[in-house]
TrEMBL record:
Tree of life domain: Eukaryota
Family to which the UniProt record says this protein belongs: Belongs to the DMRL synthase family.
Pfam families: DMRL_synthase
Top-rank EC class of the record's enzyme: transferase
GO MF, any single term: 6,7-dimethyl-8-ribityllumazine synthase activity
Organism: [Candida] railenensis
Protein name in the entry: 6,7-dimethyl-8-ribityllumazine synthase
Function: Catalyzes the formation of 6,7-dimethyl-8-ribityllumazine by condensation of 5-amino-6-(D-ribitylamino)uracil with 3,4-dihydroxy-2-butanone 4-phosphate. This is the penultimate step in the biosynthesis of riboflavin.
UniProt keywords, alphabetically: Riboflavin biosynthesis, Transferase
Amino acid sequence: MAVKGLGEVDQEYDGSKLRIGILHARWNKTIIEALVNGAKAKLLALGVKEENIIVETVPGSFELPYGTRGFLKNQFEKGEPLDAVIPIGVLIKGSTMHFEYICDSVTHKLMDLNFQLNIPVIFGVLTCLTEEQAEARAGLIEGKMHNHGEDWGAAAVEMATKFKF
């Protein structure tokens, strides 16, 4: 099974004038840290200034939709609006239906926020069947997969520059 990244972009995007938020869950700390670092590295590589990458946390993935809305509102009220936000979480299947309910709810609510808030909300939530799958997708297993956080950073810059309201 091959999992690929974003693929080729239609052009290079300049993130130097963007403010990008990263809101991450605190569950699965090692995996989350790798994903956040991957997203930040890609944002920096695409020209986003370090001081314009704002990072905030919430307890878990279930809190990402509400937290995203509050994060954006707080930044706007401070006079420092964001151009895109990347909610980052990791959900790993356990032995109950909890996983399915959380995945479904978080996915739908994050998608809805794109349209409610008129800002790109990048889906940065890994939904994995095993911890090994999550580690691989965070780039923590050498030679297995790439860090998906990089894809999310690239998507944030592309969406914020290409479709600015």
